[in-house]
Amino acid sequence: MEYGKKYILGVFNDEDVLLHGTEKIREAGVKIEEVYSPFPVHGLDDALGYQRSRLPIAAFLFGATGTILGLTMIFWMMGVDWPMIIGGKDFIALPIAIPITFELTVLLSALGMVGTFLIVSDLKPWGTPRILDIRSTDDKHIMAIDIARNSLSKEQIGEILKSHGAVEVNEKSID
Q: Membrane-spanning residues where (predicted)?
């Protein structure tokens, strides 16, 4: 969310009403900025029209990097830097590389995914979260609609929200 924007907030009590209301509100031509919920609502991603995340691709790439790094490290240490004869093999014995390669694959996947998630989600340790309605952390579902992105007026958007299950409609600006 950017500073200086004005939002219309629709407050919903029930996740089923929110889910069906989201579909109907989007069909009415309203562009929804985001929906905040105290717990995951199954099917809400599809109702909002979100595309599938590309985070699994990043996880695979981090894992592949860990595998290549682990094998390269073992082959360098055991074959070039400090060669040892293990199991009658002069250069490299692959079975000794498997545990270290596995651990580096898991480590780089995990650390890479944490870093990628924090960057994509804009969660900085020094950042301050902008909460539109504190009740979204307890028991209410909040639908935020950016007024500037919609061609409908505030009153029309408010009526659409109320007709599709919102128990309360508020206006909030981010300063």
A: 57-79, 91-120
Strands laid side by side in the 168-173 sheet = 34-36, 141-146, 6-12, 168-173
Do the Cβ atoms of 49 and 165 come closer than 8 Å? no
CATH topology of domain 6-52+133-173: Alpha-Beta Plaits (3.30.70)
Distance CA 30, CA 146 (A): 9
Parse the chain into domains and list their residue ranges: 6-52+133-173, 55-120
> Distances in Å between the alpha carbon of 131 and those of 37, 43, 107, 145?
12, 23, 33, 14
Reported as a pLDDT band with limits 50, 70 and 90, residue 89 is low
What per-residue confidence (pLDDT) applies to 90?
Answer: 66
The radius of gyration of the chain from alpha carbons, rounded to an integer in Å, stands at: 25
**Distance between CA atoms of 57 and 97, rounded to whole angstroms?**
25
pTM above 0.70, yes or no: yes
Widest Cα–Cα separation across the chain:
81
Q: Over the stretch 18-60, which tens digit does the pLDDT of each residue have?
A: 999 999 999 998 999 999 999 999 999 999 999 988 889 999 9
